[in-house]
């Protein structure tokens, strides 16, 4: 992350042996969802080959429609463990229900609280009981104050390993999926010591927009990105249009290298 004027010192969060908020720019990549063994292991291998630092994939998916694919659940956690075994990369996955927290926390290296649950205070309190990294995504309509207070719920429980993730907010604009608020990164860097990463994928909505938004995130001083990638995007069960083929992820990693090195 570039050292910019006005930045508060960042307290790094370690996800296994991967540092977020240190001198480097961290890339977490993987499919929206764990879909099956072949998909998960193939994508994980390719994500690793691209040089990404950690793997993302949802086993429990918060979906707008109750009829959509909601993930493989515990079977998905098992496939994630296999992906970690093969690649050595740490895992990030979402928890959507307090009843799943303990099992999810035991299975992965960082627990994600998604945008739709940013103000699920029971879930935040439960995350506060953990002693492991939590990725807290910004709510669809959350102000920076509301987001920081949500983070406080986790910190107040004694868990200080919180990373914030800007993933786009709901505005009047319909020309893309969500409005990526990169000014939020700049302001959070003034206001909090917590690392801040950006999810360009859910804001972009389509894959062609992901690379420029990811480069912009690096330019404004984000500590990293979490980006959706799939070994065969056309077959993806969730968020197919925004999934990068791993060849595009490789290109993104090359383009991010100068940002990572100037950290
Ligand atoms: C996700 O990361 O797949 C996800 C559901 O993100 P968000 O909570 O930001 O919509
Ligand atoms: Mn997704």
UniProtKB/TrEMBL annotation:
Protein's name according to its UniProt entry: 3-deoxy-7-phosphoheptulonate synthase
Give the highest taxon in the source lineage: Bacteria
Every copy of the DAHP synthetase I/KDSA domain together lies at 17-251
- What one GO molecular function would you report for this record? 3-deoxy-7-phosphoheptulonate synthase activity
Q: What is its EC number?
A: 2.5.1.54
Tell me the part of the parent protein that is shown: 69 to 331 of 350
Per the UniProt record, the source organism is Streptomyces cinerochromogenes
Going by the UniProt record, its keywords in alphabetical order are: Transferase
The enzyme's first-digit EC class, named in words, is: transferase
